[in-house]
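Exercise 7. Predict the joint structure of the components listed below.
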Amino acid sequence: MAHGSRLVDLVHARIEGFLAERTSILRSISPDLEPLDAFSKRFLSGGKRFRALFCYWGWDAVAGRGFDPFEAEGGRDRFPVVSAAAALEVFHAAALVHDDIIDNSDTRRGAPSAHRLFEGLHAESGWAGSSADFGRASAILLGDLLLGWSDELLDEGLEPLPDRQAARAARAEFVRMRAEVTAGQYLDILEERAWVVQSDEEQRTRAERVIVYKAAKYSVESPLAIGGTIAGATTAQLDALRGFGLPLGIAYQLRDDLLGVYGDTELTGKPSGDDLREGKRTMLIAIARERLALGQRRLLDELLGDPELDAGQVSMLQRTISDCGAVDEIERLIADNVARATAVLAEAPFSQDARAELGALAKAVTRRSS
Amino acid sequence: MAHGSRLVDLVHARIEGFLAERTSILRSISPDLEPLDAFSKRFLSGGKRFRALFCYWGWDAVAGRGFDPFEAEGGRDRFPVVSAAAALEVFHAAALVHDDIIDNSDTRRGAPSAHRLFEGLHAESGWAGSSADFGRASAILLGDLLLGWSDELLDEGLEPLPDRQAARAARAEFVRMRAEVTAGQYLDILEERAWVVQSDEEQRTRAERVIVYKAAKYSVESPLAIGGTIAGATTAQLDALRGFGLPLGIAYQLRDDLLGVYGDTELTGKPSGDDLREGKRTMLIAIARERLALGQRRLLDELLGDPELDAGQVSMLQRTISDCGAVDEIERLIADNVARATAVLAEAPFSQDARAELGALAKAVTRRSS
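Solution:
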């Protein structure tokens, strides 16, 4: 990821330019829309931009152009892929805004979540009614606005692409990703509640399905494929991008699941053990439940999802899950999936530069601590 | 609207065909997604389809093709406009699903709203956690899914359009409408809360702004313009469509505001006086507040937005608003706006058929009782 930060700057500049145009439209309607504008910028200013990076290097894997950080605006021929990468980030911001309402999360990246920001605005403005209701309602609308914008940004990028077949394929990949991640999120919130009436034998399969649709395809495979299709990838190239992306995406999410239970608050920006309080039924939990004796499993089931868990209960659960060997098994699964991704990469018909960058990205997303 | 019901059938068939394809994708992911599928169909099976009709006759105003109900599937050259009309209905379903969460509405068209349907599913399935939380979370995701689908449906329709300039213009109109209605909805929920700290002099202007963006452009002007651009409208034609659509849209919403306070539950499918309990700050309320003496205005402000209003309080408020002359003033505004729209229509460079149909639609949307 030698060029990672310059590329991130490029995507960021594209997002900022786009937002500036869109928010001037909002302001022409009413100055009262300023919070939609301010909070959009705020939610789009940070993040790791992994999706944008995968999209760019998926493009370069096929286009073989490398990345010249001194070329103005990344070069004219990069406009479509940089816009698509930016669109993925705007879509992701929309998903997070809605996700935080769904999960009732107070924070995002260490700062207040969108509905809490609107809630605060209501409280400090002395408006009538419930601040919490206004916060939630406004954040639903902010997410809707960002969803629409992500789509406009993608279209702006694909418009000047001379290869119309490639533009259509990239758009098809984007809309498939959009539907799949929404379906994956529904399966995720369903699993948190429906596990009580489902058979224990199926729990791992169900957790895997959530990983594949909510995370692996969304965060890695689809961004790579969108980038690749923009460059006019052959079937072999697209297969290689997917063959690399899916196992890497699974490893990425398994690392996320570990961080959700064992992550350092300072680094993740989330309270320690957050996933335990939320009751997320991840692969880690599915594997722990397979390994635990009945008594311990019942205790886990009883405590998991209790928003009031104290620090002592959290660390007890952390130990229980770790002592039964579930953490080691997840680490093995991460290693296996990374190995599978790396093997595909080694044989992939990609540019040299992209192969190196994708290898570095694979390490970054699966060894991270935040 | 001689062809109204056949046209509605055509749009409905397009929606059904599209949903059948999309839900087969959902089922290939997991049978657990069935409720997303079932509730989508349910929310897309009804409604007055005014937006679809305006879109079609906006197209015909320019294309001058009329409507032959016996032509199979409405004819090949109608595929783009019928798809766009269907896309407007799918977008509207998405907006309603989110709107009902925002307004905390239990019903929609006399049946349970989406979040209440998911809430019921949770309760009857014996799943863990809060049914209300699951209902809200799932409905947010259902709305997101429908938003994405509306966009796909529009694209499918515009793809085969030979006039690429027209396709781009239609898409630009659609995305502008999408952002404007979201902004309008935010201004609406803001006004319900922020009126307490704002000057009384501005209340009418603020209510007008909500009407223009949340309703008039969204429900009438934009559908007409989208239809017109698909047919390759000249600037004069597009100006006429807008000049007719905007005042008609204002009249449409003013009628809606009256129905929200005085509508018959049997016909509207909503509890009588629903807007009073919700505390909507409509033009009707703004005008009543201008006309009422201080004591009565204070009483109105106190009761408006109280979800517990009983039937006696509702009918007292209905009388107060009517006795001060606000209802008569709204009726005059409706008549003025309809007259303005009709005058534009009389001079408009449209096909004969479209002129007749648009005139009939103008009557239907401003004289309706549901």
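Discussion. The domain at 4-367 of chain B is CATH 1.10.600.10 (Farnesyl Diphosphate Synthase).
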